[in-house]
Specification:
Elements lengths: L1 H10 L28 H15 L8 H7 L20 H5 L1 H26 L6 H7 L2 H12 L4 H25 L9 H23 L3
Helix pairs in contact: 1-2, 2-8, 5-7, 5-9, 7-8, 8-9
Keywords: Signal, Thylakoid
Length: 212
């Protein structure tokens, strides 16, 4: 019990500065934003440690993840402002960098939709290659943060949460996709993957709605 408590405490010890509003693109390079966010391997290691040491059910995010990244899984994109109330810097939004990033975000959403179709056609499909190739952690994070620079600080508080939702959803999808050789994916695991993909597709759509 003490070991489990220690693991959870370490995961939720993210400094408050990580949630501070971002500066605009002309003040700070996009690659500097969310610099403290964990890499794909770090995120997977954290999740695996929680599941193993804490005995937490596979189907949903843990309390530790909820504390660090927000209470996900309780409805679509919770804690996010209505895009209709978003404050946007029109000049930054029109910039080549942001417009290019928006196209890439739409591509990410298309990749998720392709995985949804593949899973529907074959419940045993392995989507790991698609996740690694089309949802590269570092590239995706930088792309989302580039788009995020077009938003004013109050709006960023909501879009920041969406970015964290997306990063966690991708990690959880990769975990849900993992299957031992020779063991078919159970209906429950298929259901979990369908839920992760639906939530991820919704998060991308919600993020894009801020720039519509």
């Amino acid at each position: 019990m003490k070991f489990t408590t220690l693991c959870l405490a370490l995961l939720v010890s993210e400094p408050a500065s990580a949630f501070a509003p971002h500066k605009k693109v002309n003040d700070v390079a996009p690659s500097q934003l969310f610099a403290k966010q964990p890499s794909r391997s770090e995120f997977l290691s954290q999740a695996a440690a929680i599941f193993v040491t804490g005995g937490i059910a596979f189907g949903g995010p843990s309390d530790a993840f909820a504390a660090q990244y927000g209470e996900f899984g309780k409805g679509s994109s919770p804690g996010v402002l209505d895009p209709k109330t978003a404050e946007i810097d029109a000049d930054i939004l029109k910039s080549d960098a942001v417009q290019s990033a928006l196209k890439k975000v739409k591509g990410y959403r298309s990749a998720v939709q392709d995985m949804q179709a593949a899973l529907k056609a074959d419940s045993q499909v392995n989507v790991r290659k698609t996740i690694i190739k089309d949802l590269d952690f570092a590239d995706l994070r930088d792309t989302l943060n580039t788009v995020n620079t077009a938003f004013e600080e109050d709006t960023q508080r909501g879009t920041d949460r969406l970015i964290r939702v997306i990063m966690q959803d991708i990690t959880e999808l990769e975990q849900a996709n993992t299957q031992k050789d020779g063991i078919p994916r159970s209906p429950r695991r298929v259901e979990i993957m369908e839920g992760k993909l639906a939530k991820l597709e919704k998060a991308f759509s919600d993020f894009l709605a801020f720039s519509a």
